[in-house]
Every structure is written in structure tokens, then in C-alpha cells.
Amino acid sequence: MAKSAKSSFRCAECGWTTLKWVGRCGECQAWGTVEEAGAPAPTAVAPTRVATSARPITEIDVETAHAAPTGLDELDRVLGGGVVPGGVMLLAGEPGVGKSTLLLEVAALSADAGPVLYVTGEESTGQVRLRAERLGALSPKLFLAAETTVGAVASHVDAVAPALLIVDSVQTMSAPEVSGVPGGVTQVREVAGALIRIAKERGIATVLVGHVTKDGSIAGPRMLEHLVDVVLQFEGDRHSRLRMLRAVKNRYGPTDEIGCFDLGEAGIIGLPDPSGLFLTRRNEPVPGTCVTVTLEGRRPLIAEVQALVAPTNLPQPRRATSGLDQARVNMALAVLERRAGVRLANADVYLSTVGGVRLGEPSVDLALALAVAGSARDEALPRGLAALGEVGLAGEVRAVDGVERRLIEAQRLGFTRAIVPRHSEVPVEGIEVVGVDDVSEALASALPARRRRSH
Prior knowledge:
The protein is of the alpha/beta class. The protein has helices spanning 73-79, 99-110, 125-135, 150-160, 185-202, 223-227, 326-339, 365-376, 403-412, 439-446, 448-454; strands at 8-11, 17-18, 34-38, 88-93, 116-120, 142-146, 164-168, 205-210, 230-235, 242-250, 258-264, 267-270, 289-296, 299-311, 319-322, 347-353, 385-387, 390-391, 397-398, 417-421, 432-436. Helix 7 packs across helix 8 and helix 8 crosses helix 10. It is globular and about 75 Å long. Plays a role in repairing double-strand DNA breaks, probably involving stabilizing or processing branched DNA or blocked replication forks.
């Protein structure tokens, strides 16, 4: 008697397979994602009727694939010009960061060019209307619907025939014919697949809102990010008004652009020049502060690093950071003490950025080191000084990318002197560029009081 084919089990996150069910995936270590895949399908595929016949690539019409501006310049910058008909975007962010506010603003602006359907599964239409009134985002071509099933969304699409569809959020939608709770792996996969089919078949630009997990990754199966055309990450500290939009994946444009927004009571507005938000306006220089130029995508941003070094009697001094990478901070402090003679073993060190910006780029290392050294010695850096460069464990200052763009931005905002890695001295009119080899040389160049005492 022939032995029947055994069913297998597959992880919905990474595709790992096993012959028996387990609660945790053996590859990606995710819980509750292993599902029965059924018996293996036959290898032979029968030909079926095609929707449209294949044509030479030179005869394909590209007019319908051009991006249409949304009316929000910072969003268009990230997308590469705007939304593409039939393109599906996934917008993810932490709760309360302003995803719904951003999309409501986009919906109102896009409604000038054609009907927009906004489907909410988390709020009532009355609640969305109240927010739209507060934001001034009312338009007769903006249609609202409160639904939680993907079939109802398809019915609204047939009735409205929108040019833009917004679904807030994909985790609240469900497909009744599929088992599982809304937000589960199976439901999210099925709902996303149905919405993507609707967008592709009817040429509707679609935005799906997605939740994030505790570690900041997008909730749901990993294949969700592979199915959509664009993955956008909306970031920001809820205690700050600054918001940043990044393109993690973009089939239609660049992935190294960011959009900056100001989230306030009156709504969300784009910030074409956000550098001023990350600086402190003061009359006299203060010890423990240093300005640097970071690259967010291809955009240079001026940011300020602040440090406070305070003596302590604790056996283990505190090391607290806000807006900076803790690992890089610890390495920079160790290099300062070992290579530059800055004593920090008996002192608490507090480091922060201005304006709530997060600086994780290695080019911030030199500014961080100068700020800590200035605070430890109670010496202020000269006015109009900026520093950029990566600090190595041997104390050397390494080169970074985009030095010329950074220096041009610093000169535009009134800085007259910049400390950069040796052999990265790009001449820029109006700013003195000083090249250094190591941290000790940078400290001698940046702290004139220390240089005078050495003589």
C-alpha cells in the first residue's frame, strides 16, 4: 500500500519548514508563526488564460506609471516625486507618532486632483471628521468609511472609484473567509494580498498603515514588506514636534532621502530647512557643546551635541545618553581617557542632542569627544566652530562621506571654522577648514585656552 504524502509546516515569517508543528520557528525564533502548509503541490503547472498578451517592451505605455505629486513636498521628496498609480505603500510608525495626521493631510491635498477614499478601522468617521476640521483638511472629494473587513473596502472602492486609497490600519482589517484574529499573521497576509490585488487591477495608489512591535520592526509577517512597493518609516519622539519620514524600500525612487515635518496643534507641515531646530541660540559659548553636520540620507543637517561632566563619589559613574548611540558614546569616552588624557573615571557623563534628533552616524564621534572634553575642562569651544569625523579606537580621526556637502551647509548657516579629518580638507568659500590626524590634535585646535597653557 502506497504511503500517503505527509503535510509539512512552514513559518509565515521566514519560510522555514519542518515535518511537525512547533510553537517557535527554528530559524527566526518567532513565536506562533509556524502553520500547516499541507501536502506538497504537484510540480506540473497547467497553462491558463492570460489577462493580456505579452508585448515588446518598446510598446509599453509609461504614461500611467508616472508619479503624481501629493501636494506635500517633503513626502514627494521621499517617494521620488509622488505616488504611482497602482503602487502600494506601507507606512509604519509607533503609536501616537502622527501617522493618521500625516495621511489625513495627504488625503485632503490629493483630493484636489481626484477622489480619495480614507478607510479607518480604528476610529469612527465622526472622530476622523473632527480631526480633519482641526487640521483644516476638509474636501468634498475626500470620502470616509469605517470598515473592518476587506470585502467592505472593495465595495467602497467600486462605489467611489478613488485615485488614492488609504487604509488605517492593515492590522485592524480582516478577511472573514480566513481563520485567525485580526492582526494575526494569517489575517494580515490575506488582507494585504487582497488590497494589493485591488490596487494593481484598478490602478489605484494605495497606502496601508502598519503598526510596529516593541523593537521598532513592522508588525505582521515579514513577507508583507516584500509584497508592497514602498515601505516608509515615520519616526519621532512624542515629546518633540520633529518628525522624520524615511524610505526603507522604494521601487519607484531613492531610499536615501528623508522628509522632515513639524507636528503641532494646527497639523503637520513640511520643513524644507530643519537645521535650525537642532541648535541652541545663545549669546556666549557654553562649555560642553559642539556642533556637527550629519547626513540624513542625502540631506546635510546641522546638529548640536551637549555634554555635562560632573564629579561623583559613586563606585560606578553614570553614563546617560539621549539621542546618541550608547555603544559609540562608550567607545568615544574610553578613547578620550586613554588617548587624549581626559580623566573621566571619577565623573558622571551625560550626553544629549538638541531638538530631539537622533544621531547614529559615525561622523558625530569627533563632536561628541570635543563636547565631553570641553565640559571636563570647563572650556567653551570658539563661536562658529563645527566638527565632523569618525574616531577610531587608536585615537585617529577617520574620513567620512560627503564632507563638501556638510561644509557648504555649515557655511550657509554662518559657521566660519570646521575641524575635519586630515586629507578631507575640501576648500569652501567663507569657512576655514582645519584637518587633524587624531583626537589630541583636534582638542589642541578646538580649545585655545588649553593650547595657551601648554606654551
